[in-house]
Write a structure and sequence with these properties.
The chain has helices at about 5-10, 25-40, 50-65, 80, 115-125, 135-145, 145-160, 170-185, 185-190, 200-215, 225-230, 240-250, 255-270, 285-315, 330-345, 345-355, 355-365; strands at about 15-20, 70-75, 90-95, 240, 275, 280-285. The protein has about 400 residues and is mostly helical. Strands 1-2-3 form a three-stranded parallel β-sheet. The longest helix has 28 residues, at about 285-315.
């Protein structure tokens, strides 16, 4: 919708997407997200520690602008949405959420149900040679016409046929994907069940597992483990590839060049989303991130948080009192170091850092008064409700 020519013309390209996500919880974090949106849309850097004040300020700025489309993606709580609804008479808000009850009365709702057969077929077969109709039908049933799985299956088949000129390669690739879904997907756990039901979290997880495991066979040795380790990073955040490489190097892992190559490979298989911003970043789909974290388990996750923190500590001066964290320059770490310390089981250090005046000063200089208190981890996030999305 954001890329539709008519929409772009109507709003004169003033179309902005703000991803909220499950981890933006609590007054400080919500105010920080509103301030981030304000800076992104208008360039204004004024910050508030109160979400309502931050939202009112954004609304006043939007009132001064021509018509604008603001896409608020992945909203989970009414408190996350409320500040963005203030003011901005010429601003249209488009909200995507799995919790339609948080939308204000009178909102025009569009239910995003499963793809039609034709839509799903186009995603599944995009840029592929022709496939037998029967094979396409079976793949559509096995993927539940779920956009995420369709895209993964498409890229998996494309990768398998890229290195051969054999016309039959596309059929072999399709049969391999279908065999994986049948052998390790929902049908393997319950052969008598109906086609994939996206309202069933366990069946969704099985389908993701089957597809991701098939894709990881195409990665270089150790690639599957490197992919799983990406689950340590914060949801809905662009993670610099340089930071990923630094974490791997700290444990004698992949050199920086090989890390970038692996991230490129993950991107070509649609296991991550690549961006060229800030020297290269990756973002994980929240469903894939949840799957990877489940595969790692609590003990391994805690250890990985520790590895990340130790890698960051190696980049700053240290002493008897610990690392000089206020010397960090990495934006991701400045925003989320306290969270990673806490998740690594180093709660005492996290508490001391959050109250250290040198850290507070660094955070103030880095992102204004909204940030010093916005780095403490949120309370546990409940599991997502059933699809579809509204």
């Amino acid at each position: 919708m954001c890329a539709h020519p008519k929409v772009r013309r109507h709003f004169r390209r003033r179309v902005f997407t703000i991803t909220v996500g499950r981890d933006v919880r609590g007054r400080a974090a919500i105010a920080a997200k509103v301030a981030e949106a304000t800076r992104f849309i208008t360039g204004d850097t004024t910050a508030f520690d109160d979400p309502a004040l931050a939202g009112a300020h954004l609304g006043r700025l939007l009132d001064q602008r021509p018509r604008t489309l603001l896409v608020l993606d992945d909203v989970w709580e009414a408190a996350q949405l409320a500040p963005f609804l203030l003011g901005g008479a010429r601003c249209v808000r488009l909200v995507t959420t799995r919790v339609p009850g948080l939308l204000p009365p009178g909102t025009a709702r569009v239910t995003v149900d499963e793809m039609t057969v034709e839509q799903a077929r186009r995603v599944l077969t995009w840029q592929l040679p022709p496939l037998p109709p029967a094979t396409v039908r079976e793949l559509l049933a096995a993927t539940g016409r779920w956009a995420l799985l369709l895209r993964l299956a498409n890229r998996l088949m494309a990768d398998q046929i890229a290195s051969t000129a054999d016309p039959s390669a596309v059929l072999d690739a399709a049969e391999n994907v279908l065999a994986n879904l049948r052998a390790r997907g929902p049908a393997a756990a319950d052969p008598s069940a109906a086609p994939l039901d996206l309202d069933d979290p366990q069946r969704r997880a099985l389908a993701v597992r089957a597809t991701v495991e098939a894709a990881t066979t195409l990665l270089p040795p150790g690639g599957a483990e490197r992919l799983a380790e990406l689950g340590v990073f914060v949801e809905d955040e662009a993670v610099p590839i340089e930071l990923i490489a630094r974490r791997r190097q700290s444990t004698g892992g992949l050199p920086a060049a090989e890390t970038r190559t692996l991230c490129g490979r993950l991107g070509s298989l649609s296991l991550v989303t690549l961006s060229t911003a800030h020297g290269g970043c990756i973002t994980l789909h929240d469903v894939l991130r949840d799957y990877l974290r489940g595969e790692l388990g609590p003990t391994r996750l805690t250890a990985l948080h520790g590895v990340l923190v130790d890698a960051a500590a190696a980049t700053v001066a240290g002493g008897a009192a610990g690392p000089s964290w206020w010397e960090l320059s990495d934006g991701y770490l400045l925003d989320h170091l306290v969270e990673h310390l806490h998740a690594a089981g180093r709660t005492g250090e996290a508490e001391r850092l959050a109250g250290d005046i040198r850290w507070v000063e660094t955070r103030l200089r880095n992102a204004g008064p909204r940030r010093p208190g916005a780095t403490w981890p949120a309370s546990p996030v409940p599991p997502p409700p059933p699809w579809p999305v509204t």
